[in-house]
């Protein structure tokens, strides 16, 4: 049974995917190259990038590491 996704989790996913997309474009990294770096298949990366498949946060973190990035997390109360 799938658990209901929280708005926070969805926002985190969207933000992380945006970071991946922006970095790939800025650094000229293709989907094939990112797939090679993280040991994935390019069609799987394409499905994530086109939002055809939902993606787990841990997989997005793997993609971020594959792009040579690190992550700092800041937790705060909503405004």
What's the quick description here?
With 79 residues, the chain is mainly alpha-helical.
Descriptive overview:
The protein is an all-alpha fold. It contains 4 helices and no strands. It is globular, with a radius of gyration of 13 Å. It starts with 6 loop residues before the first helix and ends in a 13-residue tail after the last helix. The model has no long low-confidence stretch (mean pLDDT 91).
Using the CA coordinates, give the radius of gyration.
13 Å
Quick one: overall form?
globular
Integer average pLDDT: 91
**What is the count of helical runs?**
4
DSSP summary, beta strand count: 0
The largest sheet is: none
Structural class: mainly alpha
Low-confidence stretches: none
Strand content: under 5%
Report how far the terminal alpha carbons are from each other: 33 Å
The proportion of residues forming helix, as a percent range, comes to 55-70%
Helix-strand string: HHHH
Chart the SSEs and their pairings.
Blueprint: H1 7-27, H2 31-38, H3 42-49, H4 57-66
Helix pairs in contact: 1-4, 2-3, 2-4
Structure keywords:
single chain; 79 residues; mainly alpha; 4 helices; 59% helix; 0% strand; globular
């Amino acid at each position: 049974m799938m658990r209901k996704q929280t708005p926070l989790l969805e926002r985190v996913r969207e933000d992380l995917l945006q970071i991946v997309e922006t970095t790939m474009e800025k650094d000229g990294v293709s989907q094939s190259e990112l797939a090679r770096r993280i040991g994935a298949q390019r069609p799987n990366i394409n499905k994530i990038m086109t939002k055809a498949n939902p993606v787990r946060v841990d997989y997005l973190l793997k993609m971020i590491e594959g792009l040579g990035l690190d992550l700092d997390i800041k937790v705060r109360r909503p405004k």
